[in-house]
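Predict the 3D structure for this chain.
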Amino acid sequence: QKASQFGAPFFYLSVSSRLGNWIAFHRVNKCCSLETEMMELDSKKQRRRSFPFLWILLGALPAFLPLIHFWDDFSKYFYMGDEWAQLHQIDDWGYWTWVFSFFGENFMPFFKLVWSAILFLGDGSYFLFILVQFLLHAVVVFLLGYLLRQWSLSWFVVLFSQWVLALSYTHIEIMMQSIQMSNLLSYAFLLLLAIYVSAHVLHEKEFSVSSCVVVAVLSGLGALSFSRGLLNGTAVFAAFAMVNLVHKQATREWVAPALSALIPCVAIALLTAFAVFGNTGSSDGGLQLLEVGKHYFYHLSLNPLNQQLGGLQIGVGLAVKLLVANALL
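Done. Predicted structure below.
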């Protein structure tokens, strides 16, 4: 049931590392001769022409297959524990207090605005939540395909990656609980952020003030959708940092967008940290930062190898080894 939670960190690290490698590769290519650049440009144009945009849309359609196949089962779903907690807090605290309150270690007012809008528009219909869940899932699959196509990967790689993401059984928890919409929103903003940054690097566009604002907004919305969204801007910042540390290709014009992606995440993370400290020992029991750190450490360590470990008890030493193995993989 919790398997879907372990897939997310690898998703962030994978996008971050590939974005960094792609940016570095693009910068190195700028040092090539004009003739070589023209040949590569012609090759990319031919690849794009042979890979229609419509294919990405078709690649996202399998995301709806579980809903179609198990329509009767999904139509029986109803509110569960965390969702009843949201409804109780709205009734007890008032709407706006609930929107800007913490839920565990999560500060996610943007998600709460979206979730409550669906709640009110659907007059409490849970099946509407299910439909929106699958729609967002398809959007995430589409955005992944768009990003990979933007990076000039082949049609087979793009479609195969889309179908794996669309049909992975580890998504079951996300698809069956409306509260997990926060995950989908944070993933969508991560991909939008990566697409926007990649477009500027690919076309050698200057990161103007307005562009940096867009980067900051996308980063901030992801962080305000779910606590895991704090890694969105951090992943983009890490991509630029890897270029500087590994390839020594960082340029001054990349400092502004890198910081624009990072600062909203750091600010929201600090706000969350202060709230966790403030809630420690309260009647409802806030999470301590040490426990939050352990939570994310084991997420990073046990992914993706956790699926092969069954019910084994994982100690810190083995978790560290798995984390190194994942990094090497």
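The chain is about 75% helix and 0% strand.
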